[in-house]
Design goal:
The chain has 212 residues and is an alpha+beta fold. It has 4 helices and 10 strands, in the order ββββαβββββαβαα. The radius of gyration is 17 Å and the shape is globular.
Length: 212
């Protein structure tokens, strides 16, 4: 049994590794499940999960939804999204598909990246990486979004196009297209590089913490 452990809870965004084999297999911190009627989001200062807002409509996420630690959507992510003015300044979002229902948030899981949705929200690049749960028997051979049932991708697209929709007001969200694994890998790598530039390498953060 490994004797390595965190004596104190690490910040889910800054204190965890981005995965066992990024950009192909990433760690996902889950904020939302398909059963949530309230939008939860990581509190960037404390690392706790907080209520962002109750969902105005009946729209619920069709898959597990969270982010990849130590990623940040900055200029490199924006450059991969023609039509975007800037990155959204958040960790990179990931949707994880699994056969067995996972009903609770604030869990960590390994996710195999298979594609993504190129989404622009209010002029900001807000890509949604699509992944499958690593070790899932039903999706064990899936390596590309094209191998998923089309209705799953359709549901993801519909959710993100409508989850902020207010009746009578124009939508400010658009999804340009769905892309495959190679572009998804490039987006993950760009988000990792954007994070390192914005926040420094993990060893730099540890050294700064030791000095404080």
């Amino acid at each position: 049994m490994s004797r390595r452990f965190h004596r104190y809870r690490p910040h889910p965004w800054h204190g965890l590794e981005p995965g066992p084999d990024p950009p192909r297999v990433v760690l996902a911190y889950i904020e939302l499940t398909p059963f949530d009627l309230v939008k939860y989001e990581i509190d960037k200062q404390t690392g706790f999960l907080r209520v962002d807002r109750p969902q105005r409509s009946s729209s619920t996420p069709p898959a597990l939804y969270g982010f990849v630690p130590r990623t940040w959507c900055g200029e490199r992510v924006r450059a991969l999204s023609p039509g975007a003015d800037r990155g959204d300044g958040d960790p990179l979002d990931v949707c994880v598909i699994s056969e067995r229902p996972i009903r609770r948030a604030e869990v960590l899981l390994d996710a195999r990246v298979v594609g993504g949705l190129r989404m622009i929200d209010g002029g900001e690049a807000d890509d949604k990486i699509i992944a499958v749960l690593e070790g899932d028997d039903l999706y064990r051979d899936v390596r590309s979004v094209d191998a998923l049932p089309p209705v799953l991708v359709e549901r993801l697209r519909h959710y993100f196009e409508t989850y902020k929709l207010v009746p009578g007001e124009p939508a400010d969200v658009r999804i340009e297209d769905a892309y495959g694994p190679e572009h998804a890998f490039a987006v993950v790598e760009a988000a990792l590089a954007d994070y390192a530039e914005e926040f420094g390498a993990p060893e730099d953060a540890l050294a700064e913490e030791a000095r404080s």
